[in-house]
C-alpha cells in the first residue's frame, strides 16, 4: 500500500474512533479493540536485547501486543503503534515467528495452540514491516504536532461549547 493511502486510512480511523489530542495510545488500542469486537491487550515484557522490540499475537479471543518494557514510554508507544499497523493492515505471519522462539514462556492466559498469527518487529526490509512502521510514524507525527497546537478543552461545559464554536478546527491532518 502506498504512503498516501496509509495516511488516508490512519486519518479515517482516528476520526472514526474519536481520538482527540493529546494521543493516548492505550485508549486508541481500547477503542480499536471495541470497534473490531476483539480486545487488544497491551503486554509490557522484558524482551531479549538484541531482538525484536515488539510482537503481535492474534488469538480468537484477543490480540496481544507485547512491547519492550525496558525502554522509554515514547519508544513503547512507537512499538505499540507499529504492532497496531500490522493489525490494521491485517498482516499475516511469515512463518518465522513462533512465539516461543522470542517470548520464552507465554503468559498463562495465552494458549499456544490458539495462536493464529504472530508477528515480531525485527527489521523493515519486508513490505509489511515498512507498512506497519509507516503507520506508527504517521500517527506519531500528527500527534506531536496536534499535542502542541490544539488548546486543551475547557473543563466548564459552556466554555467548551464556546471553544468548539469559535476555536480553530484542527484535527488529524
Task: List key phrases describing it.
single chain, 173 residues, alpha+beta, four-stranded mixed sheet, 6 helices, 4 strands, 12% strand, IrrE N-terminal-like domain-containing protein
Give a short summary of the structure:
This is IrrE N-terminal-like domain-containing protein. With about 170 residues, the chain is α+β, with helices and mostly antiparallel strands.
Detailed description of the structure:
It comes from Amycolatopsis minnesotensis. By secondary structure, the protein is of the alpha+beta class. It has one domain (3-166). The chain is built from 6 helices and 4 strands. It has helices spanning 3-16, 25-36, 73-88, 99-102, 127-149, 157-166, and strands spanning 40-45, 54-58, 63-68, 117-120. Strands 1-3-2-4 form a 4-stranded mixed β-sheet. A hairpin with a 4-residue loop joins strand 2 and strand 3.
The largest β sheet comes out as: 4 strands, mixed
Q: Reading side by side through the largest sheet, how are the strands ordered?
A: 1-3-2-4
Strand fraction equals: 5-15%
Shape: globular
Question: How many strands?
Answer: 4
* Count of alpha and pi helical runs: 6
**Helix and strand run:** HHEEEHHEHH
Q: Quote the average pLDDT.
A: 76
Helicity range = 40-55%
Distance between the termini: 19 Å
Amino acid at each position: 500500500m502506498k504512503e498516501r493511502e496509509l495516511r488516508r486510512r490512519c486519518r479515517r480511523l482516528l476520526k472514526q474512533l474519536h481520538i482527540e489530542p493529546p494521543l493516548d495510545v492505550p485508549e486508541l488500542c481500547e477503542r480499536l479493540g471495541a470497534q473490531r469486537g476483539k480486545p487488544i491487550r497491551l503486554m509490557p515484557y522484558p524482551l531479549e536485547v538484541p531482538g525484536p522490540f515488539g510482537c503481535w499475537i492474534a488469538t480468537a479471543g484477543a490480540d496481544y501486543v507485547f512491547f519492550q518494557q525496558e525502554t522509554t514510554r515514547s519508544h513503547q508507544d512507537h512499538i505499540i503503534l507499529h504492532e497496531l499497523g500490522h493489525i490494521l493492515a491485517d498482516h499475516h505471519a511469515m512463518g518465522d515467528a513462533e512465539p516461543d522462539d522470542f517470548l520464552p514462556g507465554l503468559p498463562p492466559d495465552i494458549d499456544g495452540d490458539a495462536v493464529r498469527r504472530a508477528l515480531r518487529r525485527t527489521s523493515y526490509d519486508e513490505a509489511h514491516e515498512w507498512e506497519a512502521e509507516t503507520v506508527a510514524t504517521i500517527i506519531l507525527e500528527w500527534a506531536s504536532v496536534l499535542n502542541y497546537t490544539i488548546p486543551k478543552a475547557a473543563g466548564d461545559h459552556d466554555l467548551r461549547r464556546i471553544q468548539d464554536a469559535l476555536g480553530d478546527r484542527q484535527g488529524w491532518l
